[in-house]
Amino acid sequence: MKKRAKAGLSRLRTHVASRDRDELRLLLGAVALVAVAFMLMVLVANVLGGDTQQFDERALRALRKTENPAVPIGPSWLELSAFDITALGGPTVLGLTVAAVIGYLLLYRLYRNATFVLLASLGGWILNDVLKAMFARPRPSVVPHLREVGSASFPSGHALTSAVVYLTLGTLLMRVAERRLLKWYCISVAMLVTMLVGLSRLYLGVHYPTDVLAGWLVGLSWALICWLVERSIERRYGLKQERVEAPD
């Protein structure tokens, strides 16, 4: 009888500790969202006021050779690498990545996770189009573009959508991974790819630094919102976390 009571008490403590950790994660996520949203509002206000224009133009000029602004600084392979990296944030690569991941999740019957990835990604693309139409900032003209572009400049669509997709997939892999080191590895790779995509847009001269920063902040905000909503629904309705199990 005593053993059963101790076992029951142990399970209760584990359950309470798990709930406390979930509540703490949600609280920290909400605090992070507020902080990112505040930084984004400050950035938008400065961009609209023209306070960042001089910094933006100076930063783009610094990435080009003084005697010939059409030539970027650094070795020739760096320009080729920038083209390859920037493609990781393009709609084709991101679309194929999202489709492949959703297909994988559906094969393993992880329907809730698949829906989460789909809605988060689609929401990011829609948000990008709405914000570009709203601000309608012209593309940089201070240096020649190394890649053809046609849409508005603010925010950077590559930075925004890559942040949404890669950070969403990173957090998803964190939940699947068992070891803490693997969890940190997943989110670190997602953040690194997102950062490199944004920097490649600066190197190619198709975005101002503030465009890229805004894209990162908006993408991070959207990824946080989707994560908070998904975790809140899971916690509120007592849904079990989906795990990868071999299909029949």
Summarize the structure.
The chain is 74% helix and 3% strand. It is mostly helical.
Report Rg: 22 Å
What's the β-strand tally? 2
Strand order of the largest sheet: 1-2
Number of helices: 8
Q: Which range best describes the helical content: under 10%, 10-25%, 25-40%, 40-55%, 55-70% or over 70%?
A: over 70%
Task: Provide structural commentary.
This protein has 248 residues and is mainly alpha-helical. The chain has one domain (2-236). The chain has eight helices and two strands; from the N terminus they run ααββαααααα. It has helices spanning 2-48, 53-62, 76-87, 91-107, 111-135, 157-176, 180-203, 209-236, and strands at 64-65, 68-72. The protein has a two-stranded antiparallel sheet. The chain is globular.
Keywords summarizing the entry:
248 residues, mainly alpha, two-stranded antiparallel sheet, 2 strands
Write the layout of secondary structure elements.
Blueprint: H1 2-48, H2 53-62, E1 64-65, E2 68-72, H3 76-87, H4 91-107, H5 111-135, H6 157-176, H7 180-203, H8 209-236
Antiparallel strand pairs: 1-2
